[in-house]
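Sequence, structure tokens reproduced for reference:
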Amino acid sequence: MSTDRFERVREIFIQASTLPLEGRRPFLEERCADDAELRAEVEELLRFHDAEGVGLPGEAGLRMLPDGIEVEQEIGGYRLLRKLGEGGMGEVFEAEQVEPVRRRVALKVIKWGMDTKEVVARFESERQALALMDHPNIARVYDAGSTTEGRPYFVMELVKGVPLTEYCDTHRLATPERLELFNQICSGVQHAHQKGVIHRDMKPSNVLVTMVDGRPVPKIIDFGVAKATSQRLTERTVFTEFGQWIGTPEYMSPEQAEMTGLDIDTRTDVYSLGVMLYELLAGAQPFDSKELRTSGFDAMRRAIREQDPKRPSTRVSTLGESRETVAERRRTDPTTLVRLLRGDLDWITMKALEKDRTRRYGSPAEMAADIERHLRNEPVFASPPSTAYRARKFVRRNRVAVVAGSLVVFSLVIGIIGTTIGLVRARRQAESAQRVADFVVSMYQDLNPRLMRSHGSTPEEIFGRAIERIEVELADEPLIQARLLWTLGDAYSVFGQNERARELMERSAEIRREHLGEEDLDYIMSISFLGDVLSEMGDQRGAIGYHEHAAAVRRKVLGPNHHTVGWSLRSLGIAHWRAGEYDTARSLYQESLTIISNARGGDSFDTSITLFFQALLARDEGDFGLSRELFQRCLDIREAVLCPDHLEIGLCLLEYASVMYQTGEYDRARDLASRALGVFEQTYGSDHLTNTRALELLAAIEHRVGNQEEALNLCGQALDIRRRIGQPDIESLAGDSDFDAVVEAYQKRAGEDTLHQ
């Protein structure tokens, strides 16, 4: 085919592919006129495009011939039973293997006429990519070979399932259940990335949900357009031509739409996962499929590259009559669904969909970790940098250091108002909603810093009056009452008034128990968090009681192998550890690790949390070798799934450094502690209590190796920070005389009698 002929076919194909099916026939009649051969070539390409969604092959692949594969035919010892489907490159059959094991499998074989160098290389890359994978959420490859005609094939696990979105909608999965399935998908994609493979065409139809041991398990299929990131998959080069369309438009990243192939990395899959999450949450794609495909080729690419989609919550609000159906498929109503999506889930989704890939999550695991934070009611890292949100996080990070001033109270109440407004909006009775809204506004007015000064009221006094009003005025709104009491309890814990905090949180939990029941999962989430709070307060017996109940209910309702059972067992282990019951803690940690590793994957962030606490326990027991091993495993996972300056990496580095210090490996300890300090400064800024922990450990290390001036300098930096934040006391991390010696020398040099001022 001449170059001119090829370009004409390409031009007509690109234009026709953007048209709806009903508009293609008149278009082709006009553009192809009496050239039947030209029209046949374009139509064959359109069939390729519609089946596979991966676009236009090179020139050599423009002509395709009949497949020639028949049912009952035998290929490489596999008897073909029925055709399951086909795409642009290959056909997929259900087949039977007799030897060495008898089983049903899926066999994919390249199509006749598609055996160009480019297509064969891409097909072989899929075969090799899948062979690298060993993950419960990726379809497993069993075998590979070539037919007698030389056509490559591979044999993989037969996944008897349905596409992701179809499964979720058919089974009416609630939003948390959809998130749990999605996180399994993230785990599978993360595994592929660690093997050096990008999928490049992640979409719901490439994720089949099947049942394994009575629970739904998503399986990722079709790595046909996978791109190797760190290794050569075949001896042939898989080259994406400039101007070649790879991917499915609705799920395609902006860098894919550039069509250069020069800027594709693992964050391309993060974007596609973001689109999938958007669809799971909102019941619609970020861009309307019909509008996208009928806008014209250039306009479609421009929309993908430049147009920011609406937030999922906003998208639901604009669905019109279909809102009811979308909400019903998630076992809720439209108003509640919008409330559930607004905030964390909006932020997480939009971060994944950032046009600038440097602003997206660095990995699928990092995205999944943020979703887990949301499910645990923890602040997510995807949140926008709003003043109120940052203020709340700052206060929580500085529970000891922050003074209960009017500005802090003001910021905290903004958070209360924001949360409560969401609850108010979820209510169907306008009159009730208005009454609660008026109540919240009046709370805001009471806590306004100027009004506090004018009335001579303290934050504690105003909080006390607010609690009395909550219990009286919202007595007929128990669940909203519970939410406000809980929030104020959290505020008291921020200011160190732990007993008052505990009282309010327990009252809140009791209301939820009365109205939701002891086996309601929302109530269980509530008492799990309360158990964590009690453990931090030193009430280990109270924490143990809550965590034991939570574990029992989760086992009963969700099954013994659900990852939240692992969460409860881990929290229970932490409480026993803090109570000095090391044997019990060790057993609970191991059980938690087994459950979470099986449910989430051994390389998941959730697994690293359990490893972290196992390492702390081993350190406390004096088993420094085991502690070192566990900290290293924890660090390896976190460095693989999180961004380099992630706080969780910093915390692991610091505790790991303390083990190295105690075992006399000072160079290693210094390196780890220095890296931890860098993370803390990046996260918190220069003045934060956590920074001083790293500085103090570094001072002890330098003292031990004889660098006295450097030790004194580091001690001085730590003390300066503590003075600036109002916490001058220095506590030894080292647990021996080294740090005490540094403090004494610093005091002497500074001419101070004491540091406790």
Summary: The chain has a mean pLDDT of 77. The CA atoms of residues 121 and 235 lie 9 Å apart.
